[in-house]
Every structure is written in C-alpha cells, then in structure tokens.
Amino acid sequence: MPSYRAKRERLWPLAAATLALLAWAPLQASAAEQPRIASINLCTDQLLVTLADPEQILGLSPYARDPFRSWDKDKATAFRLLSGEAEDVLALKPDVVVAGRFTKRATRELLKDKGLKVTEFDPARSLDDVKKQLRQMGALVKHPERAEAEIAKLDSAIAQAHAAVQRKPLRVLAVSRRGWVSGGENLTTSLLSAVGLRNAGGELGLKAGGFASLEAIVTLRPDLLLVTDSTDFAEDEGRAFLLHPALEKFYPASKRLVLPERLTACGGPTMVEALDRLAAEISRVAP
C-alpha cells in the first residue's frame, strides 16, 4: 500500500496544474470579453490602432494607409483594409463598428439595421474634444488606462508648446488647396491658441471654414500662413493657388508655417506630434 508521502508526491503535479488552470481562467475570460472592432473612418482608425490590442482590430478604413492623410499608415499595414461599404463589415461580424459622425450615412444605417452596434465619433473641434475622444475609445476597447496615458502625453506637449508662445499674438491664416481657409471654430484654432497664435480665418466671417479669394487673403494681411507642405511644384490648379506670385511675394517660405495634413486631418494621438511640429515651425520663422 503506497505511503502517505508517495500519495502526496503523486498528487502534487495534479494540484499544481489545477492551480495554474484556475489562475489562467480569469485571464482567458478577460481576453474573451475584449470587443472585436471594425473601423470605417480614418480618424477612428487612428484612435483604434493606438488604444486597442491588435487582436481586437478586424479591419480599418480604405484611407488607413494613405501616405498623405494617415498618421499611422505604417501600423495600418498590419490590418485588413475595408472597402468602407457595409458588405465586408457584415462578413466580419464585429462586436462594434466605429465611424465618424459624417461617415457615409447609408452605410451606418445599414449596419445598424442589420443589428450591429455602431459607435459614432464627432469631429474634434478643440484639444478638449481630442481628450474626450481618447476617453471614448479607451472605454470602448476596455483600455481606459491607455487613453489616460495618451492624454498625459498631450498635456505634456501643450505645456511644452507654451514655451514657444509669442509675446505678440501673431495672426495666422491656414490655407490649403484652391484657397480653402480654416475658419475660427475648429481644431486648427485650438492648436494655434496652444502656441500663442491667433487664427485669422474667423476675421473672414468663416466658422468651420470655406473658400477665400486671393484678393481677400492679401487684403486680410495675416502675419503668417499655415500650409500643409513646402513644395514649389504645382501638380494641378488646386495647388497652384498657393504658389501664385502675389502670395509668394507677401508670404515666402520665411512667413509660412508647414504642418503636414496627416497631423491635422484628425484629432487623437496625432496632436502630440502636431504641437511639437508647430512649436518647431514658430522657432524657424521667428524674427
């Protein structure tokens, strides 16, 4: 008959395995509870890739790898690209679909009609809105601590940007293709304010934004222009507007702040780099 010691030694591996299983079970259950998410909007792409676990991401919008508009195009290569239509999203059977408030309405409504949960994000019009979006996505993917870490980075970038604040509040006009001007009530205004600059677009009577003539821009006489690139090649008429001799005369490179579109197309984690870049540009053009 086996001794007590022999029985104990024989049962010990089984007990250890049982304890390991009990410890592993909650982790497995926790992983199973993480929602599987598809994104059909460029801005929700960036929030999702930053805050979610890779295995939670079923697919991203068609623009996720766009080199001009996507801030995290390299990270996006690890994930499936969706068409932006409802069919391929339905095939994935996600727990949640994230979209922008202005993402194609017919697609959003069809997904809802098919029983999918669609969470919509409003456009960020200020740095405070950016923080709200980070928290919204952090709660959705069940990683609120990651959202708070990103907000801490943003607060740090804002604090550093204040070091570049101009004593005189220079007036800046954000101009892009064909004379599109950023108005006074948007994310650009919030970014400029963080570094002590004033968006002159509001002086043209524009809220969110709109087109302005060359004459209107020259007459407004902002101190600086904010543009998305510094190239001197006009590949089309839209780009040629920014290279017009009148603008070139009054606003050479020394009077143009350059902030790539991929940093301002959305709010979210891009704002840290946008603030750093803007502060560096102010130092470059400062007299």
TrEMBL record:
InterPro entries: ABC_Transporter_SBP, ABC_transptr_periplasmic_BD
Keyword Signal set for record: yes
Stretches assigned to coiled coil: none
Alphabetical list of Pfam families matching this protein: Peripla_BP_2
Domain of life the protein comes from: Bacteria
UniProt keyword list: Signal
Domain called Fe/B12 periplasmic-binding: residue spans: 36-286
Residues making up the signal peptide according to the UniProt record: 1-31
Gene3D superfamilies (UniProt xref): Nitrogenase molybdenum iron protein domain
UniProt-listed GO biological process terms: cellular response to iron ion
Official protein name in the record: Iron ABC transporter
Organism: Tardiphaga robiniae
